[in-house]
Design brief:
Layout lengths: L15 H8 L7 H6 L7 H24 L1 H8 L3 H9 L1 H15 L5 H25 L40 H25 L2 H12 L5 H12 L1 H13 L27 H16 L17 H10 L5 H17 L12 H16 L2 H32 L3 H29 L4 H19 L11 E2 L32 E3 L4 E3 L9 E7 L2 E7 L10 E3 L10 H16 L2 H11 L5 H29 L2 E7 L2 E8 L1 H41 L25
Helix pairs in contact: 3-9, 3-10, 3-11, 3-12, 3-16, 4-5, 5-21, 6-8, 6-21, 7-8, 7-9, 7-12, 10-14, 11-12, 11-17, 16-17, 16-20, 16-21, 16-22, 17-19, 18-19, 18-20, 18-22
Length: 705
């Protein structure tokens, strides 16, 4: 373990070449060559590049499951509550280890530990794709025997069969099948847990490593570049999901006769597993250089030329000090994010365990800290719910494909949220907002985001009529129009092959339920369209078209996503000013721990609970559940009006709660200002402690962020 390099200027007598030789403990035999010519691995700029690519790949693999959540539900028969819990398990391993990783700080070989964490993330990605290879091929037609190719003829009405028959697929419901299903689902939960564990050291250690060895003036710029690149990760995850879900799930083992599905068919399952393999490969590739970085590298001595030149042009001599302090304050934010990595490096484990609960309770009793964190938790609950289930919501509400839904979110919503975060940071920096005005900005952003959510309640349409599931005109079920029309067909109960009557816009679960006894194909423009005729439940005998009925309000999907994107951008403006409220509102010695506590509470209360709450809410709107071996599996049909009201209503509730918290923050700040003014009017010199908004006798917004 080599000696730790102190700040620049601490050892002026030691030349840079000798420092390189001392710090090259990663390659003991190469001291002479490293002293002559420092390698790329001793450049903090190269480390910033590598870490940007690694965090980009890591966020891409973390967000990929959310882009394919509805596909995983269909493939393995999961409810929305279970899939929400699966998405939340990513945070379980992260929250459980973040404090202990923070304790180690710079005591360990940070680059190597980052590399090990990245390899664990890559392994988790491989485990997430493993269910595809240990499961049987996907059978979208449950009624066809296992040794025959899947064909839509098996869903036809067969009048010669006497009496209703049980579902033919139930014959395969053995204990082995159920055990294998549980093993597959359990494997995905384990993979998500490992994904969270592997991500623990990546961001904290990388940020502290950059901050330790970069020039003090270059560190905020490097961290800004790092976060700018990393924020593209979720967008790339949805884009990758949009590409992969266009491919059929069993692209590696297609049946001999091919498949008769299109991506618009509700039974279509895309190649969700392929994205995990691609992302895992990217993470493993990005992790390779970390095993060759030194434990400590020479402190960067020179400021970047283009940065100092730009500052000399845009900054006046009187404002240089103010801008520098502002950048250093902003630099504190990324350096502390998701971690407690810079907390008391000389504390023992016992001392650290004793200090942490005491600081936690002290900060939770601080009104500004508690209210701002609650406001952030509420906003992040909307983000977590939207990120997990917005693709599924768009699929169901507007009858679009999963691929198109991911493209819309990755191309519009996520970039809009990034723009909102950047705009919030720019406003705080350029307008030099103090606590009062920062709170006002948070209030304004939350209020405008809330108002943009109101029209979403009315942008949608009701569920089209489904025979035997939803009531038709006159509150009668469609099957009552033709009593007994499909009773002699003996339709399997677990079959799902929807058809649509274009004349009445009525959907049937299978051609058998429509009483259809023959099938045909129509070739138009290099496209084959299947239809069914001789349907006893349809006026005139048909024909009916294969597939679900199209939504009558699919034209509203673009305005809906645009409105959500604008709302996300406005709500994201509160990100930076709310964080600066925390930095200005806690004691200086508690600042780093307070930031770590903040992110832990956000993970536990928002990223872990919100997907489960949203998934449970979505399940309450289901009107027809598929059955698998006697248990409730995936939902086939939802009440669209109820789904829209409850899903958007839950988002509206969280946004209202954040608005209320920011309002209370403003009330507390005004009260503190009045108390400070009253105390300053008394002759009590020597008082050093000041409230968050200090100096009202000079000007209301004295503390500059």
């Amino acid at each position: 373990m080599g000696p730790r390099i102190g700040p620049a200027g601490e050892e002026p007598q030691m030349p840079e070449d000798s420092k390189v030789a001392v710090d090259s403990d990663a390659a003991p035999g190469g001291k002479a060559s490293a002293a002559k010519q420092p390698s790329m691995l001793h450049s903090i700029k190269f480390f910033v590049l590598c870490h940007s690519l690694l965090q980009l790949a890591q966020l891409m693999i973390s967000g990929y499951l959310k882009s394919s959540i509805s596909t995983v539900e269909k493939r393995y028969g999961l409810s929305s509550q279970t899939s929400g819990l699966l998405a939340a398990f990513n945070e379980v391993g992260n929250v459980g280890l973040i404090v202990f990783v923070s304790y180690f700080g710079s005591r360990v070989h940070r680059p190597r530990l980052i590399g090990c964490g990245a390899l664990l993330v890559a392994l988790a990605g491989l485990l997430m794709s493993l269910p595809q290879f240990i499961s049987e091929p996907y059978r979208y037609d449950h009624t066809s025997p296992a040794d025959l190719p899947q064909a839509s003829e098996t869903s036809l009405c067969l009048p010669m069969t006497s009496g209703p028959t049980p579902a033919r697929s139930n014959g395969s419901c053995s204990s082995y099948t159920e055990t294998r299903h549980l093993a597959v689902v359990g494997l995905m939960f384990v993979a998500q847990t490992l994904l969270g564990v592997g991500a623990v050291p990546i961001q904290p250690f990388g940020i502290s490593y950059i901050d330790d060895f970069a020039h003090s003036n270059n560190s905020p710029l490097y961290l800004g570049i790092l976060f700018a690149v990393t924020m593209l990760g979720p967008g790339l995850a949805y884009g990758l999901g949009g590409l992969m879900l266009r491919l059929y799930v069993d692209i590696n083992r297609m049946p001999e006769g091919g498949i008769s599905l299109t991506s618009k068919d509700p039974r279509w399952v895309g190649a969700w597993w392929l994205g995990f393999l691609i992302s895992a490969g990217a993470v493993a590739l990005a992790a390779t250089p970390y095993f060759f970085f030194p434990r400590e590298m020479p402190k960067e001595k020179h400021e970047l030329r283009f940065r100092s030149r730009i500052l000399s042009i845009i900054a006046s001599p009187g404002s240089k000090v103010k801008d520098s302090s502002c950048e250093q304050s902003l630099g504190e934010y990324p350096g502390s994010q998701n971690s407690l990595a810079q907390v008391a490096p000389d504390l023992s484990v016992v001392q650290f365990i004793k200090v942490f609960p005491r600081v936690l309770l002290r900060n939770l009793r601080h009104p500004i800290f508690l209210l701002v964190v609650l406001a952030q938790v509420c906003l992040l609950s909307t983000v977590a719910g939207m990120a997990t289930f917005l693709p599924k919501f768009l699929e169901r509400q507007f009858s679009i494909t999963a691929s198109y839904a991911n493209v819309l979110i990755g191309g519009l919503t996520i970039p809009a949220a990034i723009v909102g975060v950047v705009v919030g940071g720019v406003l705080v920096k350029r307008l030099h907002l103090g606590p009062m005005r920062s709170t006002t900005l948070c209030l304004l952003g939350a209020l405008l985001g809330l108002l943009c959510s109101l029209p979403l309640f009315f942008m949608g349409c009701s569920t089209h009529q489904i025979a035997g599931v939803t009531p038709g005109p006159g509150t009668r079920l469609e099957r009552e129009l033709f009593p007994g029309c499909s009773e002699s067909c003996s339709c399997p109960s677990d079959d799902f092959n929807p058809v649509c009557d274009p004349s009445t816009h009525v959907e049937y679960i299978t051609p058998c339920h429509a009483g259809c006894s023959s099938r045909g194909n129509q070739e138009t423009m290099n496209k084959s369209t299947a239809f069914y005729t001789d349907c006893s439940c349809v006026a005139g005998g048909g024909p009916v078209l294969a597939g679900s009925c199209d939504s009558t309000c699919s034209h509203l999907v673009l305005p809906f996503v645009l409105l959500i994107s604008v709302s996300a951008a406005l709500a994201s403006i509160t990100h930076t000013p709310s964080f600066m409220l925390i930095l200005r509102g806690v004691k200086k010695e508690d600042k780093t721990l307070a930031v770590g506590i903040q992110f832990m509470l956000q993970r536990v209360l928002a990223w872990m609970l919100s997907p489960v709450v949203h998934g449970s809410t979505i399940d309450t709107t289901c009107v027809y559940w598929a059955q698998s071996c006697g248990r409730r599996a995936v939902c086939r049909y939802y009440d669209h009006d109820l789904l829209r009201t409850r899903f958007i209503g839950l988002q509206f509730f969280f946004k209202m709660s954040s608005l209320a918290c920011f309002t209370l923050v403003l009330v507390v700040l005004r009260q503190q200002r009045q108390e400070a003014a009253a105390k300053l009017s008394l002759p009590k010199p020597g008082r050093e402690e000041q409230p968050l908004d200090s100096g009202p006798e000079k000007k209301p917004e004295d503390p500059k962020v």
